[in-house]
C-alpha cells in the first residue's frame, strides 16, 4: 500500500490544531482542534470530512499535549484514519522559529530537535510548544518520518541589508538579534499562487504579499525569493495588527519603564496583547470595526485609518525595494474578506499603477481572483492562504512515499 496521507500538526502553548490530508488530491480527511490544554474545560473538536460526518465535540480535562494527541489519535481511529495506518506517510509540524539555520523544511532527528531547542531564547512563546508537539508525536509513532516546516524559512533569502538592524554588530550577533520574519509558509504559498493566477512562473514575477489576519505581515517577493518582510526578531514589528502595535520608536519602551514605571513583562503584554486595533478602539475584529465605522464611530474610524496608513507605507516601501511590481496579493482573514481594507489600501496609488475595480472587489469567493481593473499595470489579487496544505506539500515532497 502506498502511504499518501500527511498529518499536519500546529502545536501552540495550550492548543493543538491538526489536519489529515490525502496527498493524491490534497483533500482533507479530517480537521480539528484541541483547546485549553491543561485546564478543566479542555475542548476537542474533530470533523471527519472523509466520512462526511459532522463535527464531534468533547469537553473535559486534557492534562497536556501528550493527552491531547492521544485523544486526537483516538478520534482519528474511530473514523478508520488512525495514526497506526500504513497509509500515513509522515507528520508535518509547524515550527515558528528556525533562526538562520533552517532554510528548508527538515526531517526531524535528535540534532534538529536540539537546534530548535537552542532557538528558544528568540522564540520563548512558540518553540517550546512546537517542541512538545514534536516529542509527543515521535513517542506515538517513532518509526514515522516527522518534518519541521519553519515560519521563518521563506525569509532566510533576505539580503543582510534587509535582515540586519542598524545596531552594534557585536551585540546583535552575540544575542542573535536580526530580522527573521514570520508567516513564511503563507507568504511562500500565496506568492506562488499569485504567479499561477497570472499564468506566469514564480521566477518571473515580483509580488507584494499582504498577510492580514489577527497577526499581519507584508513581504516583498522577487522572482519567488523573499527580499524583505515586515516582521522582525519577533512578530511584533511591522504592520498594525489585531493586538500588536507593529512599528514604533523603541524609545517608547524606555519611556514606559522610566516615566511610566512599567515592568518588562507589563510592556511586553501591552505591546503584544493590548495594542494594535484592540488598543486603539477596543475591538480587534475587522468586521466589528467596519460595523462601527458604518455607524459613524470616530474611534473605530481612527483605528481603521491608522491601520490603512501603515499598510500603505509598506506597499510604497516594498514597491521601492522591488523596483518593478507585477502583483499585490491580499490574504488571511482580513485580506481575504474585508473589501474596504483592500480598497483603502490602494486608494490614491494610481500613479503606481495600482487600483481596484469596485465590482470585482465586492465579490465574495474562496478562490484566488483578480480585483484590479482589466489591463491594469499591476495586478491586485485576493489569494486565500492555506498554510496547512503548504506544510503538507513540503512534508510530502521531502519524504515522498518513503514510508510505503
Ligand atoms: P486570521 O488570523 O487569518 O484567522 O484572521 C482573523 C481575522 O480576520 C479576524 O480577527 C477578523 O478581524 C478578520 N476577519 C475574518 N472574517 C472577516 C470578514 N468577513 N470581514 C472582515 N474581517 C474578517
Word description of this protein:
The protein is α/β, with parallel strands linked by helices and 404 residues long. It folds into 2 domains: 5-150, ATPase, nucleotide binding domain (Nucleotidyltransferase, domain 5); 199-387, ATPase, nucleotide binding domain (Nucleotidyltransferase, domain 5, 2-Layer Sandwich). Helices cover 38% and strands 19% of the residues. The protein is built from 15 helices and 14 strands. The strands form 2 sheets. It has an 8-stranded mixed sheet, sandwiched between helices. It has a 6-stranded mixed sheet with strand order 11-10-9-12-14-13, with helices on both faces. α1 (65-78) packs across α3 (127-140), α10 (286-294) crosses α11 and α11 (298-322) packs across α13. The relative contact order is 0.12. The model has no long low-confidence stretch (mean pLDDT 95). Bound molecules: adenosine monophosphate. The site of adenosine monophosphate has 12 residues, from α10 and α12.
Provide a brief overview of the structure.
With 404 residues, the protein is α/β, with parallel strands linked by helices. It has 2 domains: 5-150, Nucleotidyltransferase, domain 5 (2-Layer Sandwich); 199-387, Nucleotidyltransferase, domain 5 (2-Layer Sandwich). The chain has 15 helices and 14 strands.
Amino acid at each position: 500500500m502506498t502511504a499518501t496521507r500527511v498529518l499536519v500538526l500546529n502545536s501552540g502553548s495550550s492548543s493543538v490544531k491538526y489536519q489529515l490530508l490525502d496527498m493524491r488530491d490534497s483533500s482533507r480527511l479530517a480537521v480539528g482542534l484541541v483547546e485549553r490544554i491543561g485546564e478543566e474545560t479542555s475542548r476537542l473538536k474533530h470533523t471527519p470530512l472523509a466520512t462526511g460526518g459532522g463535527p464531534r465535540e468533547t469537553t473535559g480535562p486534557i492534562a497536556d499535549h501528550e493527552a491531547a494527541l492521544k485523544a486526537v489519535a483516538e478520534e482519528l481511529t474511530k473514523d478508520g484514519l488512525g495514526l497506526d495506518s500504513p497509509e500515513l506517510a509522515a507528520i508535518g509540524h509547524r515550527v515558528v522559529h528556525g533562526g538562520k539555520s533552517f532554510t528548508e523544511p527538515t526531517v526531524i532527528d535528535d540534532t534538529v530537535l536540539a537546534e530548535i531547542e537552542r532557538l528558544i531564547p528568540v522564540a520563548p512563546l512558540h518553540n517550546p510548544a512546537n517542541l512538545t508537539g514534536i516529542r509527543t508525536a515521535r513517542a506515538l509513532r517513532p518509526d514515522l518520518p516527522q518534518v519541521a516546516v519553519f515560519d521563518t524559512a521563506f525569509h532566510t533569502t533576505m539580503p543582510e541589508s534587509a535582515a540586519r538592524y542598524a545596531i552594534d554588530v557585536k551585540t546583535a550577533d552575540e544575542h542573535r538579534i536580526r530580522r527573521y520574519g514570520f508567516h513564511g509558509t503563507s507568504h511562500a504559498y500565496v506568492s506562488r499562487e499569485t504567479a499561477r493566477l497570472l499564468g506566469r512562473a514564480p521566477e518571473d514575477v515580483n509580488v507584494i504579499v499582504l498577510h492580514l489576519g489577527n497577526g499581519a505581515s507584508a513581504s516583498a517577493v522577487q522572482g519567488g525569493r523573499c527580499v524583505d518582510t515586515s516582521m522582525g526578531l519577533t512578530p511584533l514589528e511591522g504592520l498594525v495588527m489585531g493586538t500588536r502595535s507593529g512599528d514604533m520608536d523603541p524609545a517608547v519602551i524606555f519611556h514606559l519603564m522610566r516615566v511610566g514605571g512599567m515592568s518588562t513583562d507589563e510592556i511586553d503584554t501591552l505591546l503584544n496583547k493590548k495594542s494594535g486595533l484592540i488598543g486603539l478602539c477596543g475591538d480587534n475584529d475587522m468586521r466589528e470595526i467596519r460595523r462601527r465605522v458604518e455607524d459613524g464611530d470616530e474611534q473605530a474610524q481612527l483605528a481603521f485609518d491608522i491601520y490603512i496608513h501603515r499598510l500603505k507605507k509598506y506597499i510604497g516601501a516594498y514597491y521601492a525595494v522591488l523596483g518593478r511590481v507585477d502583483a499585490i496579493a491580499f490574504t488571511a482573514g482580513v485580506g481575504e474578506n474585508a473589501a474596504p481594507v483592500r480598497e483603502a489600501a490602494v486608494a490614491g496609488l494610481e500613479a503606481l499603477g495600482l487600483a481596484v475595480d469596485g465590482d470585482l472587489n465586492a465579490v465574495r469567493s474562496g478562490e484566488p481572483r483578480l480585483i484590479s481593473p482589466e489591463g491594469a499595470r499591476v495586478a491586485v489579487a485576493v489569494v486565500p492562504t492555506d498554510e496547512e496544505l503548504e506544510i503538507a506539500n513540503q512534508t510530502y515532497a521531502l519524504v515522498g512515499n518513503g514510508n510505503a
